[in-house]
Amino acid sequence: MSVTIKDVAKEANVSVATVSRVLNKKSNVSEEAVRAVNAAVEKLGYSPNFLGRDLRKSETRRILAIIASTEQSFYSDVIRGMEAAAFAQNYDVLIATTHDDPNHEMHLLGMLFSRAVDGAVLLGPKLDANTINQLAQKHNIAMCLERLDNCNVLTVTIDNVKAGRDAVNYLIRKGHRKIGLITTIQRSQSSIDREIGYKLALKDNNIPFVEDYVYYGGYETEQGMRGCEHLMNLPSPPTAIFSISDIIAIGAMNYALSKGYRIGKDLVFMGFDNISYSHMFVPHLSTVEQPCYAQGKLVIEKLIENMKSPNPDHNLYTLPHSLVLRDSTGD
Amino acid sequence: MSVTIKDVAKEANVSVATVSRVLNKKSNVSEEAVRAVNAAVEKLGYSPNFLGRDLRKSETRRILAIIASTEQSFYSDVIRGMEAAAFAQNYDVLIATTHDDPNHEMHLLGMLFSRAVDGAVLLGPKLDANTINQLAQKHNIAMCLERLDNCNVLTVTIDNVKAGRDAVNYLIRKGHRKIGLITTIQRSQSSIDREIGYKLALKDNNIPFVEDYVYYGGYETEQGMRGCEHLMNLPSPPTAIFSISDIIAIGAMNYALSKGYRIGKDLVFMGFDNISYSHMFVPHLSTVEQPCYAQGKLVIEKLIENMKSPNPDHNLYTLPHSLVLRDSTGD
DNA sequence: CTAAATCGTGAAAACCTTTTCAATATAACA
DNA sequence: TGTTATATTGAAAAGGTTTTCACGATTTAG
Lengths: 331, 331
What we know:
Chain A is of the alpha/beta class. Chain A contains twelve helices and twelve strands.
């Protein structure tokens, strides 16, 4: 039905081996043959069947990026970094979404187990550390953005503890001592780490930790509003609020705006992620920026390196973050 | 090296054919064999090599969604719809990004030509209609969200002309007669169509078209600000502004806010897309909503249908849009 | 109790490549 | 000239599945 390498060989009056050689740019083939084959390929509109090729070579040169959903525009820079590193070594990057369903995550990893892709990168996995550890023993898996406790799989991330600590320390340095934290009920490691950082910063400055100053909500803007409302209705409300994501922070700011607080003066906000949308908001949000592109690039480089020769020793790469200071902290 | 169906057969003391039958849940196999095979699979940790399987069956049950980038969170609902339809028929959806590079778009389509996927959906292609027409003759290609003029490839979209017309007609019905349009230099068909709709609405109401009321910028927020600035500095500035995307509209609103215009009163805004971020903005943006999920779902259903038996007759599906009215139009 | 249908199974072909191996032809060398 | 190295080439194996075909065994029908 469909045109195969045999048809090309017949058309070009050579063997399939020669066609293959031409297609793969092997050196030891006469110019005449090259011409004949190329002409035949052109004429027949042939494109090689990757299934045959990949089967024979036992490699697909494709890497799967597994993410929760494409909604978080924040992933896009990571993906770009991954693609840059992949293309540089003739790999393609495919993306698939789990919608936070661990079963579906496992289903997608099935593509890896079944050799439909050569490697997989998990961006915020929902599977547990044990499972991933086990799978990574036999398959090329890496993690990015989000580390997992007790997981010795290749991971590229930032130091979220330090990031949270830096953010809160900055608020304290600006004179704030009543600092609220809006975080999530869902305990991703990064949320946990940022909360730890928050507490460490308090301790650094001998500020007692106040249970009421921590609000546990969800990842949505509405939850940010809710959190801010909760905090500001306390008997002694905070003068600064650190949110573990920009989305949440923007919700919090919206609430504050609606209540007439002067943002950056009466009340100060610090977000996390530096999402591209954040500069669309007035007032502009101060935030912690993590190197998305660099993380994506590095995780692919290391993954491919590992695919060639596994190195179980060094597997955690921590990239530097930075503070981006704007209106919401009065900068 | 890796465990194959042969190993399983040996372990289970049956032929590879029987193993295959068990794995594919064929009926004509004894319970005893089923047990033995399953035990062997479990014991050896076998998972079938999809390359072998796909090669033999000449199908991968994978569909590729080709998008510009994952930055536009607006795509995420489309993807969800696509996945829902695909999973229902045992297909997986993979995503790949072009970053608006037609060459890369072609490269990704190569996965289709080379049978690494069974079908592809283009969401806003950068290739021209001719090329796509030609490719679609031999391969399973569909388009979603964005139609192409002179392109008879399976397409699911909304009626952007009517959508633009409805939006502007609404503004006129609210009493506005000086209406600005902020659109893009890049001439995607949807932009063109929405502009046509804008002009038709004016004509519907005997309002003369004013060249100066149209600003051509880019897709970014900044361009929206720029556009609004341009329009409001005209000798006779508009009292209502229609933007072909929410991102642009939000930029425009930001400018208006900064200049002290009372949005929804002095100046009215209408966006397009109803991005999920839009409700995070105060004031809330009125916009045209298109059924993203439904479009994604339908395009996959029709694509799979076409893969079974091509139907070149009916290939354009137009889904209904709707107006979402909020603060920015004073609703 | 025989003939016919059904069931369960395995050997082998098929899917499309790449790559090894051996063979031929040519060039280089002594 | 005879020998060896080099350059091209094709036949065939290999990669892991699914599926067809044929066969023996068992059940059903008559």
